[in-house]
Amino acid sequence: MGHGQSFRARAAAPPPLALALLAALLLSRTQNPRTSASPTCYPCKPNLLVTAADFHSDALAKPGQLVAPFDTSFAGATVKQFPGVNGLDLAATRLDVRVGGVMPLHAHPEASQLLIVAKGALSASFISAGTNKVETAVAFSAYSSSNPGLQIADYALFGNTLPADVVEKVTFIKEAEVKRLKAFFGPRAVPS
To answer: Where, subcellularly, is it found (predicted)?
Structure first.
């Protein structure tokens, strides 16, 4: 497209395969029909019940739940929010990292990740001490799995019921500091 031209798109009827895989979320998950991977697919919704809304999601339109210790919010889009991705092994996340916020040390054990920064600037690496210093940064992640999983190291290390002396031995962090961190993160689930 040349300079000054605009792009217009219009919705079209989804291909027959998309209709065949559209999630019936009230039923339990089944084996993905395209792979032999772990169950990542919901049974298909009957074609007569399919609507245009099944192929649209605003799950990433606004910031999600703030995780206070990190000053970062997360909003997710999986098959539960977007039935049209059923069986495609896809998921996405919106990240809003406030000024001074950080991404906690984490892993997605079930997926590869693609990070796209839409606003602001982020310093991203395997391990980074960088913080966001200018404005709230907005980024979107795409995953190669409908269930990429999330393991945040801080919650795994200090939000558990292991005794502090055991955590001290495996992390080499003084027991008093382990106790302080366990009190802060507490035995609870990873924020969703």
So the answer is: Secreted, Extracellular space, Apoplast
Q: Is 108 annotated as a binding residue?
A: yes
Give the DSSP per-residue string, 94-143: EEEE-TT--PPSEE-TT--EEEEEEES----SSS------SS-EEEEEEE
Cα separation, 175 vs 181, whole angstroms: 10
Distances (CA, A) of 55 to 24, 49, 58, 84: 13, 13, 11, 5
Instruction: Return the HEC string of 20-71.
Output: HHCECCCCCCECCCCCCCCCCECCECCHHHCCHHHHCCCCCCCCCEEEHHHC
Provide the whole-model pTM.
0.62
At position 99, the amino acid (one-letter code) is: V
Q: What is the pLDDT of residues 32-74, one digit of tens each?
A: 444 444 455 778 778 888 888 888 889 999 999 998 888 899 9
| Amino acid type, 159 | G
Distance CA 98, CA 120 (A): 10
Structure tokens at 53: 């809304």
Structure tokens at 184: 């802060």
106 annotated as ligand-binding? yes
Alpha-carbon distance 176 to 185, whole Å? 14
